[in-house]
């Protein structure tokens, strides 16, 4: 594995190794001296074509704690509007002698395209409505910390699946780790071709949250963007909450041991009730703190060894 | 990416080479080391024993058991992974990270005894000292090894040595312990085709 | 003018003949033993009437960095074409008589292929008011085909009026069928499992089909002719087949890429494969081939869409739509239709020359290879295998989707009114 572009790049062994290392990194985070010397002399560029303070700072801290030189390049508004192509932007940055490019892009597939043009390791920090593999790793990490081995665990992913980059990565990674995944959304927010996709990959999908809910070990609630409402994907926020929100009633129907996660930012009251977000079994804050550890682990595994190893 | 091969023992045939330390040699060596530690430290107060994974960890556990036998006190024991501090990371595939477990007592102001199976170039110990430095400030650090095979590349020496074993650089020293290997012995092997 | 003797060509696959070409016309057919003629050895080659492309983007004026009339003409000659219809979406748009004449003249002065301008349906392709259709028709360019291609004439009332209007001078509206409410300008991947997996905005087949259905009904209502550009789905074929059975004056074209390349090409997000309408699944391709073979689809048209490198080297969703087609069209048709036995050379002549010429009202093209006819002739070696290299293109652009693929057939020579524009694979400037 040279790059991390998709959760599909990870075998079960790779994924487990990254999660194991993340646990060690998590311990390092508790220490007074948080810095490890592993990436001394290496340069990591956060090339962000889209704002994301959380992901960017998480990668930045992760890189710095591993002693890499981390540089943030905001390429927002460049490319098409300025007439500079993605290739030009990527090659210009790579020409500065970069070991890794952490790329966030508003268009699906952009990080993959960049691998054709540069020698550096490319890490996908979220591309369009496609994937966000490090988010999936940290979700798996937090769930695993509470639930143990995820093999055979029943995990529901509920919300705006069409426009989510998190769902694809999570679906792939959780399947790799042996979990039993069910996607839940109204038909208008389900990815296209879901029936064929589910049949081909062996996961389930449902339009009925209440039917799925009582069997879950984990409910992953995805953000529903308010701007989707103008697109007529669903009639009103109220109707969405009744059908697909994690309401108080549903919280009671969720098995006692089940955990709740949300990659954030949370729309309290829309996809998740305020109480649920603050419940003890909510992993929302764990998810944030695991972000740095998981990204340290990813950077270590991609950059820590010999090149092309 | 490769699976760590150090944490999961794989049953394998006897490695080549001749046995230089038997199980009873190893037990005697460890007992002597334990006595030396007590003697040198004038007891076991402020001691912390940290093993370097994987076999150093196993040896540390055994030394601590012997210390309890001798002094009747449980000495805090832990492990110190050096992977992230190695200076040869770039020359090989990414290594799996081992566990670092520091006893609750911490290392500040303690006498830390680092335990490893084989002392060779000294680079692992250098990495361990760096790792330890990031964890706190011990009063003193000592080094205990089962085998010292020479060929140091850094100014490092062990305080407690089970056995000094003169070797050629081309030779391979393999330490196997009942836990985790199921066999207890130290072998030295000459590369195929060479005479020892 | 030089006299040429084409020796031993297989005429439309119907048998070996010699063709004597002099003064721009076919002077003799049969066994010819002429002196004073330049001989073109056509042993093993199939002779077709010069190909006519109903759908070419030449980019001049406006984007001469991507293609010019000269380079596009060279690519056309290399692909066996003697006439191309140049789409109106240039800058400025071909929406006036003057603009149409300018394109027409550029083509004639270049001389490699007859460039026939297509006029815009609406002013500036804005889809609001009719362009000067009548003035373009009356101009020196004698425009007969009108299209807002690149955009759909989505307003039903505007479409109706355009159809009514062009009827008076025998014109036709070539519709880019894309209901913008179902597939907006961001739509770039066939809507289905793959678009779901790739997270690319979906372009459902139904967005094409509802416009095709609407427009055949408008054609019936107005009694006018409608032409469906780049048909890409089985559903559209179904509608066209029904419309033809009802006697509605509808014609349809399919592109070489929709006949050969399926949607799985998008898996690596290579913008070379970004085209509008998008590449479709294999099931659609099978239906398109069948429809071309049975005549439901009338013509093969390239939708040759050159793009400068920097317009393609963006993230997939932001890259320009379109791919090259002129140089590979005949090879593709040979590879996927003729060689597997789905189509005869006679049918190829109909789909790539006779019928498009008739649809476009080009009387000098698409004529039979017979005595006294204009000598517009294409010679192809049907058995040669060619590994396509985009670097070899005569186009200014390199967005060739067949790069690195092996195709069967090689265009050997092209004659436009008796003058070789391509001779033994060399473009004759």
Automatic annotation (TrEMBL), chain A:
<feature type="binding site">
    <location>
        <position position="55"/>
    </location>
    <ligand>
        <name>carbamoyl phosphate</name>
    </ligand>
</feature>
<feature type="binding site">
    <location>
        <position position="165"/>
    </location>
    <ligand>
        <name>L-aspartate</name>
    </ligand>
</feature>
<dbReference type="InterPro" id="IPR036901">
    <property type="entry name" value="Asp/Orn_carbamoylTrfase_sf"/>
</dbReference>
<feature type="domain" description="Aspartate/ornithine carbamoyltransferase carbamoyl-P binding">
    <location>
        <begin position="2"/>
        <end position="144"/>
    </location>
</feature>
<dbReference type="GO" id="GO:0005829">
    <property type="term" value="C:cytosol"/>
</dbReference>
<comment type="pathway">
    <text>Pyrimidine metabolism; UMP biosynthesis via de novo pathway; (S)-dihydroorotate from bicarbonate: step 2/3.</text>
</comment>
<dbReference type="GO" id="GO:0004070">
    <property type="term" value="F:aspartate carbamoyltransferase activity"/>
</dbReference>
<keyword id="KW-0665">Pyrimidine biosynthesis</keyword>
<dbReference type="GO" id="GO:0006207">
    <property type="term" value="P:'de novo' pyrimidine nucleobase biosynthetic process"/>
</dbReference>
<feature type="binding site">
    <location>
        <position position="223"/>
    </location>
    <ligand>
        <name>L-aspartate</name>
    </ligand>
</feature>
<feature type="binding site">
    <location>
        <position position="132"/>
    </location>
    <ligand>
        <name>carbamoyl phosphate</name>
    </ligand>
</feature>
<feature type="binding site">
    <location>
        <position position="265"/>
    </location>
    <ligand>
        <name>carbamoyl phosphate</name>
    </ligand>
</feature>
<dbReference type="GO" id="GO:0044205">
    <property type="term" value="P:'de novo' UMP biosynthetic process"/>
</dbReference>
<feature type="domain" description="Aspartate/ornithine carbamoyltransferase Asp/Orn-binding">
    <location>
        <begin position="152"/>
        <end position="302"/>
    </location>
</feature>
<comment type="function">
    <text>Catalyzes the condensation of carbamoyl phosphate and aspartate to form carbamoyl aspartate and inorganic phosphate, the committed step in the de novo pyrimidine nucleotide biosynthesis pathway.</text>
</comment>
TrEMBL record, chain B:
<comment type="function">
    <text>Regulates the transcription of the pyrimidine nucleotide (pyr) operon in response to exogenous pyrimidines.</text>
</comment>
<dbReference type="Pfam" id="PF00156">
    <property type="entry name" value="Pribosyltran"/>
</dbReference>
<dbReference type="InterPro" id="IPR029057">
    <property type="entry name" value="PRTase-like"/>
</dbReference>
<keyword id="KW-0805">Transcription regulation</keyword>
<dbReference type="InterPro" id="IPR000836">
    <property type="entry name" value="PRTase_dom"/>
</dbReference>
<protein>
    <recommendedName>
        <fullName>Bifunctional protein PyrR</fullName>
        <ecNumber>2.4.2.9</ecNumber>
    </recommendedName>
</protein>
<dbReference type="GO" id="GO:0004845">
    <property type="term" value="F:uracil phosphoribosyltransferase activity"/>
</dbReference>
<dbReference type="GO" id="GO:0006355">
    <property type="term" value="P:regulation of DNA-templated transcription"/>
</dbReference>
<feature type="domain" description="Phosphoribosyltransferase">
    <location>
        <begin position="25"/>
        <end position="160"/>
    </location>
</feature>
<dbReference type="InterPro" id="IPR050137">
    <property type="entry name" value="PyrR_bifunctional"/>
</dbReference>
<dbReference type="InterPro" id="IPR023050">
    <property type="entry name" value="PyrR"/>
</dbReference>
<keyword id="KW-0328">Glycosyltransferase</keyword>
<comment type="function">
    <text>Also displays a weak uracil phosphoribosyltransferase activity which is not physiologically significant.</text>
</comment>
<comment type="similarity">
    <text>Belongs to the purine/pyrimidine phosphoribosyltransferase family. PyrR subfamily.</text>
</comment>
<keyword id="KW-0804">Transcription</keyword>
From TrEMBL, chain C:
<comment type="similarity">
    <text>Belongs to the metallo-dependent hydrolases superfamily. DHOase family. Class I DHOase subfamily.</text>
</comment>
<feature type="binding site">
    <location>
        <position position="57"/>
    </location>
    <ligand>
        <name>Zn(2+) 1</name>
    </ligand>
</feature>
<feature type="binding site">
    <location>
        <position position="149"/>
    </location>
    <ligand>
        <name>Zn(2+) 2</name>
    </ligand>
</feature>
<keyword id="KW-0378">Hydrolase</keyword>
<feature type="binding site">
    <location>
        <position position="276"/>
    </location>
    <ligand>
        <name>substrate</name>
    </ligand>
</feature>
<feature type="active site">
    <location>
        <position position="303"/>
    </location>
</feature>
<comment type="pathway">
    <text>Pyrimidine metabolism; UMP biosynthesis via de novo pathway; (S)-dihydroorotate from bicarbonate: step 3/3.</text>
</comment>
<dbReference type="GO" id="GO:0006145">
    <property type="term" value="P:purine nucleobase catabolic process"/>
</dbReference>
<dbReference type="InterPro" id="IPR050138">
    <property type="entry name" value="DHOase/Allantoinase_Hydrolase"/>
</dbReference>
<comment type="function">
    <text>Catalyzes the reversible cyclization of carbamoyl aspartate to dihydroorotate.</text>
</comment>
<feature type="binding site">
    <location>
        <position position="176"/>
    </location>
    <ligand>
        <name>Zn(2+) 2</name>
    </ligand>
</feature>
<feature type="domain" description="Dihydroorotase catalytic">
    <location>
        <begin position="46"/>
        <end position="234"/>
    </location>
</feature>
<feature type="binding site">
    <location>
        <position position="89"/>
    </location>
    <ligand>
        <name>substrate</name>
    </ligand>
</feature>
<dbReference type="InterPro" id="IPR032466">
    <property type="entry name" value="Metal_Hydrolase"/>
</dbReference>
<feature type="binding site">
    <location>
        <position position="55"/>
    </location>
    <ligand>
        <name>Zn(2+) 1</name>
    </ligand>
</feature>
